[in-house]
Each structure stands twice: as structure tokens, then as C-alpha cells.
Design a protein that fits this description.
The structure is a single chain. Helix content is 1%, strand content 45%. The longest helix has 4 residues. It is an all-beta fold and 398 residues long. The termini are far apart. The chain contains 1 helix and 28 strands.
């Protein structure tokens, strides 16, 4: 079943709120108000004065963001909850580590710093390179940084004698046992409780690979990721406590970018979303098949617009419903940022960025302000070179 179309962006917010939306381009969403679509005119506003701000990750409880610049420095900045403005506007609030990553910022992991919610305080995990040595997986470590009660930042190296990289953190607010997943130097993927190294365990089903991604389900202690089954990648869920390893999808079409979260529109029921063959965005629910109540079955799907491909999907919840932002790749580079919703009563598929100028846009992230969700993303001019990690291509105010 395909659910597209819809309505719902607020055209009546203040000019100040409209000025903020991306570190190089953006759209202000306010999905609780639903005027006619004709009232919304796509626009982009530069929100950072720093050209090299890439791959930001937002902490929604602390109103902070962390990011890595093109020199490999790790920064923490603030964000105004009322307006969405970066504080300071450059995003360079506090430098927590110099030269953690190689020139270009992300290095071989293609992943910047990530938040881990829970424990005694929320922390930031990231890949750092050993000083003076070649930038290889063998010389990579995982850095951990956190803010102390006096406001000062401190850091340490996780397992300093073991080459590790590419950490992702769990996102359960207040979790007494926050977890991370990460690679070793050979591409094996592990998970562990951040504060208990003895809990380290290899994630089952994954071959050695440089970029496997295992994300933690929001609201539970489980990881979701894809495993190849008979030549087709399918989504699996691994329960960190019971060790149950369950296949959630089947059928034709490569599954990618799986996410799992508690959907408020279904009373907090856990749902799973994944792309299928890159061109369909499918929401799966358990218990919808009367012949097999334990089966996860497609509940709704959205076809990629512009005959494009989905990439960098990011689900979020707002005002009692689930949504997802994503970039659409058409041809050689992503050209637009979109938002979608799965509610059959108010279906939604909406382009947020204008058709002109012709630009590459990447890595959308959502922050919920008092006025509603704001989408942040990077914008690049592909005529000036490669759009990704290209300082000369990035379009930010100076």
C-alpha cells in the first residue's frame, strides 16, 4: 500500500524562526498546523557561519550539537530551543579534541561524533587517530567525551590499546546501561555497554566489512541491522539481553537503512522502517498478519519521488506521530530533502528544498524547537568539485 501526498507545514511562524534551519540550508517544519500546501514556499537559510561544519548530531535533552570540522577537530555547540539558532552561530562553542580525525573530517569511517544517552551523563563517542601515525584502522581508537557538573569537558580513550573505530550510541534517555556498537581494525562489528568493557560481544550474522552499521532500537535494548540471506540483504533484530536473533523481513529487494522506534500513533508499539531496493520506504509492523502474528509485515510504503533513490533516512516523532526526513538521490548526487509520514488519515510526502538552484544536499538532521521541527542539512555546489567533504563546494555564510 502506498501512502503519499498530504498536508501540513506552518507558514505563519516568525521571520526569526524561519532564518534558522540548516548549517548551510534548511526548512522549518511545523507539522502540528495544517494549512494548504500552496501556503508553503520552499526556502533555504544558512544557519552556520562556519563553512566546515559537517555531520552534526543533536542532543535533544541538552540542546547541544556535536560535529567534526574538515581539520578533524571535534566541537560542541548549543542550539536555542525557542528558535533553533546555533549558539554560537558558527557551532564552535567548545573544542573538545584537536585533530581527532584525519584531514577532511570523517576519514575511513565516514562517520563523525555521536551522542550516547544515559549513564551518569550523556556522552560523545568518536573515532580518533593516534598522533603521528598513518590514518588506518590499526591506528584508530574510540574517544569518549563528557561535560562535568562544573561545565568543563573531559575525555578519555576507550580501550586505549585496542584498535577500534566507527562508534554509534544508544538513544534511550536516562538509560542506566547505555550501549555502543563499533568496528575493530578488521571490520568485525561489536557492541558493549559503554561503562562495562566485559560486556563486549560480536554482533551475530555480520561478515567482516569496513562500514557495517548496527543501530540501536529506540526504546529497547536491541540492535537492528541487515544480514545477507540467499543473496538479498534482510533486516534482523538482535536482543542484547536474551540473545534472540530474529529475521524481520523477507522477499525480493535489498533492505537497507533499518530503524526501529516506539510509534506514538500506535500506542508506543515498536515499528521498523527500511528502504527496499533503494526506491521504496517501507514501514513494518508486527502482528498484522492474521496467519502469523509473530511476523513483521509491511504496513505501508512510499515510492521515491523524481524516480530517485532514498538515502540518509532519519525518523523522528512529533505531536503524537512518526515522520522521516531523507535525501533523494537523482543521477549522480542528492538534489533535494523531503519529509514523509505514514499516517493513512493524513499521508505526507513533501519536498522541503527548492528546485533551484541546482545543488547537492546531504545528511538531513531534525531538531525539535518550541515552534516545531527544523531540518538541518548540508548544501554543496557540485560544479566546484565533489560535494562531500569539499570545503570549496560547501555553501555557508562567512
Amino acid at each position: 500500500m502506498s501512502r503519499t501526498g498530504g498536508h501540513g507545514l506552518d507558514a505563519g511562524r516568525s521571520d526569526r524562526a524561519r532564518r534558522v534551519a540548516s548549517w548551510v540550508g534548511a526548512a522549518l517544519l511545523c507539522l502540528s498546523v495544517v494549512p494548504a500546501w500552496s501556503q508553503f514556499v520552499p526556502s533555504e537559510t544558512r544557519a552556520s557561519s562556519h563553512r566546515g561544519l559537517i555531520d552534526p548530531e543533536f542532543n535533544h535533552t541538552k540542546n547541544q550539537l556535536t560535529w567534526v570540522d574538515l581539520s578533524g577537530n571535534i566541537w560542541v555547540g548549543g542550539i536555542d530551543k525557542a528558535t533553533g539558532e546555533l549558539v554560537p552561530r558558527s557551532g564552535r562553542g567548545k573544542l573538545i579534541e584537536r585533530g581527532a580525525a584525519p584531514e577532511g573530517g570523517l576519514g575511513f569511517t565516514l562517520n563523525g561524533p555521536e551522542w550516547v544517552y544515559g549513564g551518569t551523563t550523556d556522552r560523545i563517542v568518536y573515532t580518533r587517530q593516534l598522533s603521528g601515525l598513518p590514518e588506518t584502522p590499526m591506528n584508530a581508537r574510540i574517544g569518549v567525551a563528557w561535560q562535568k557538573p562544573d561545565g568543563k569537558w573531559t575525555r578519555r580513550t576507550l580501550s586505549p590499546d585496542v584498535p577500534l573505530n566507527g562508534p554509534y550510541g544508544s538513544e534511550n534517555v536516562g538509560d542506566p546501561r547505555p550501549t555502543i556498537s563499533y568496528n575493530d581494525a578488521f571490520g568485525n562489528r561489536f557492541w558493549r555497554e559503554l561503562d562495562r568493557p566485559e560486556t563486549e560481544e560480536a554482533l551475530p550474522g555480520l561478515p567482516q566489512a569496513q562500514f557495517p552499521v548496527a543501530r540501536f532500537a529506540r526504546g529497547q535494548r536491541a540492535a537492528v541491522y541487515v544480514v545477507n540471506v540467499g543473496g538479498t540483504d534482510q533486516v534482523f533484530r538482535y536482543d542484547l539481553d536474551t540473545k534472540a536473533f530474529d529475521q524481520l523481513t523477507d522477499g525480493i529487494g535489498t533492505k537497507e537503512q533499518p530503524w526501529m522506534w516506539a510509534a506514538p500513533e500506535f500506542g508506543g508499539e515498536q515499528v521498523m522502517m527500511a528502504t527496499v531496493a533503494q526506491r521504496n520506504l517501507v514501514l513494518y509492523r508486527k502482528g498484522q498478519d492474521p496467519l502469523d502474528p509473530n511476523r513483521w509485515a509491511p504496513w505501508s510504503s512510499i515510492r521515491a519521488p523524481l524516480d530517485g533513490r532514498f538515502f540518509s533516512t532519519e525518523p523522528f516523532t512529533f505531536d503524537g506521530k512518526s515522520y522521516v526526513v531523507m535525501m533523494i538521490i537523482v543521477g549522480d548526487y542528492p538534489t533535494s530533502i523531503w519529509v514523509a509520514g505514514f499516517d493513512p488519515d493524513t499521508p505526507l510526502l513533501r519536498r522541503l528544498t527548492p528546485e533551484l538552484p541546482d545543488r547537492a544536499r546531504a545528511d538531513p538532521e531534525v531538531f525539535i524547537t518550541d515552534a516545531g521541527p527544523i531540518v538541518f542539512f548540508g548544501r554543496y555546489d557540485p560544479r566546484k568539485g565533489s560535494y562531500w567533504l569539499c570545503s570549496a563546494c560547501a555553501e555557508a555564510s562567512v
